[in-house]
């Protein structure tokens, strides 16, 4: 047991105000930290070696019986503990139905040099994803498909947005993600001998009739604008997913998972 | 031009109160109606032959210039018009950022006899989907994959939930959906000579190594419980999607789209 948790009841406490501010990207980036809310997400962060600096909890909101063990785990890796009143926690909670657990952890940044690629690299590159929920779902898809890493080009939403943390169901803590501009990403892939296959409706090549084996990066455009001109021109191959029905029935997250799993099918065959 | 729209400014107006109540399933089912909010959704509903009975609009919330034409279209198919004050519309709007357009339309119910199947039927069967957002996404996937129809077994969320309407981006108005209990659905599929392939982690058959051509219904379990014992025993074949990473990286909507598009690939081959 370490020192007791500091108690906070005032909504005017500077830490409370700081936690609210950290919902803004600028504030997160300046402070170099981000928030992880909820039992499942914090447990996964701890499992994956994320060390919270601060841990806020409020027993009035607890849903189960495992919270004290999680708090002790966070303390063991060096988190400073704060016990909040019900009202104070309601103010800092981002979720509609809080469970009384909120951790503040340092952001990290991976570079291309940090990436460990397998013998047959398999990467996902996403351009300028706007919606945090889509980015979270895309990270889950890359995890399920066994991608070595995800590369986010020219990001619009930041990786540490609370909705990315949540929608990724903890995958953010395990799948390596590198952020870069499209030109650098393209140059790096070329240098590594990794072929690029970009999805777009503007081609006649069907994705499932295109060879997706060997060192490969699948390139996905943004929600609103689709594939950029840069990748339209730079990708080694363009592929199309055949679609029945309404033109917009497949969103970017859905198109990503279809393409990834076709690659998995071919690569395991 | 028909009669002028009736103006409503009071938050106590019975129609305002009724619209708020219609967010509840029981109220919707009793009244036999549902709500369609937003320009895109209402336009698609009108395109697909849905005839709103009532149409509520509030110019203070309009985002563009095409709203009057949409209102006239609704009037032309018999909708009674109501012009709401900004406050009154804020009260009935379901969305966080309303666009001043809300239609009330009659629910419909399709039976198996209504379904028109092609020469090589391709159906999706979902068990007890709980989250409206998932059901909406699943409807979009079935549309994109060109399914003849979606069958919802033992539903938990109702088809006419505002979040299903929204998440389906209008596909609810075009893809035929039938609701039934699992035993009846199974009997009907048998009678029609449609083979059933159910997805579950509890099999060694890989989905992509299983023949998904010919008359086929893909069966998906619920979010929380997966495939029911009924379908585990009754399906003609069980198939598994191979997964790397975290056990829960694929949710039911993602698993559905992967399976549907593998079937599309095989069936178009």
Quick synopsis:
The structure is a homodimer. The first copy, chain A, has about 270 residues and is of the alpha/beta class.
Main β-sheet, spatial strand arrangement of chain A:
8-7-6-10-9-11
Question: So, the CATH homologous superfamily of the largest domain in chain A?
Answer: SPOUT methyltransferase, trefoil knot domain
> Low-confidence spans of chain A: pLDDT under 50, at least 5 residues?
none
CATH topology heading of the largest domain in chain A: Alpha/beta knot
Domain RNA 2-O ribose methyltransferase substrate binding (chains A, B): 35-111
GO biological process, one term (chains A, B): methylation
Family (chains A, B): Belongs to the class IV-like SAM-binding methyltransferase superfamily. RNA methyltransferase TrmH family.
Organism (chains A, B): Oleiharenicola lentus
Care to describe what's here?
The structure is a homodimer of 269-residue chains. The first copy, chain A, is of the alpha/beta class and 269 residues long. Chain A folds into 2 domains: 6-106, Ribosomal protein L30/S12 (60s Ribosomal Protein L30, Chain: A, 2-Layer Sandwich); 112-268, 3-Layer(aba) Sandwich (Alpha/beta knot), CATH 3.40.1280.10. In chain A, 35% of the residues lie in helices and 19% in strands. Chain A is built from 10 helices and 11 strands. In chain A, helix 4 links the parallel strand 3 and strand 4 (80-84). The first copy, chain A, is elongated, with a radius of gyration of 21 Å. The N and C termini of chain A lie far apart (53 Å). The mean pLDDT of chain A is 95. At the A-B interface, helix 6 and helix 10 of A face helix 6 and helix 10 of B. Chains A, B: Belongs to the class IV-like SAM-binding methyltransferase superfamily. RNA methyltransferase TrmH family. Chains A, B: GO terms for molecular function: RNA binding; RNA methyltransferase activity.
């Amino acid at each position: 047991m370490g020192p007791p948790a500091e108690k906070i009841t005032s909504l005017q406490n500077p830490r409370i105000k700081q936690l609210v501010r950290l919902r803004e990207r600028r504030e997160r980036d300046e402070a170099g930290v981000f928030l992880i809310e909820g039992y499942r997400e914090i447990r996964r962060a701890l499992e994956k070696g994320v060390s919270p600096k601060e841990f806020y909890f409020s027993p009035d909101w607890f849903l189960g019986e495992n919270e004290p063990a999680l708090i002790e785990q966070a303390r063991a890796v060096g988190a400073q503990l704060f016990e909040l009143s019900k009202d104070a926690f309601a103010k800092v909670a981002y979720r509609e139905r809080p469970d009384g657990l909120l951790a503040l952890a340092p952001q990290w940044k991976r570079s291309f040099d940090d990436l460990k690629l397998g013998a047959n690299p398999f990467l996902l590159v996403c351009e300028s994803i706007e919606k945090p929920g889509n980015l979270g779902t895309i990270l889950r898809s890359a995890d399920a498909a066994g991608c070595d890493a995800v590369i986010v080009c020219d990001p619009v939403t930041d990786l540490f947005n609370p909705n990315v943390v949540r929608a990724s169901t903890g995958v953010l803590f395990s799948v390596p993600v590198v952020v870069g501009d499209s030109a650098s990403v393209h140059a790096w892939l070329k240098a590594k001998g990794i072929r690029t296959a970009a999805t777009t409706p503007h081609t006649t090549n069907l994705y499932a009739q295109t060879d997706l084996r060997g060192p490969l990066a699948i390139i996905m455009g943004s929600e609103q604008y689709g594939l950029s001109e840069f990748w339209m021109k730079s990708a080694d191959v363009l592929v199309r997913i055949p679609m029945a029905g309404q033109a917009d029935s497949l969103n970017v997250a859905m198109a990503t998972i279809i393409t990834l799993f076709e690659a998995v099918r071919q690569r395991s065959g």
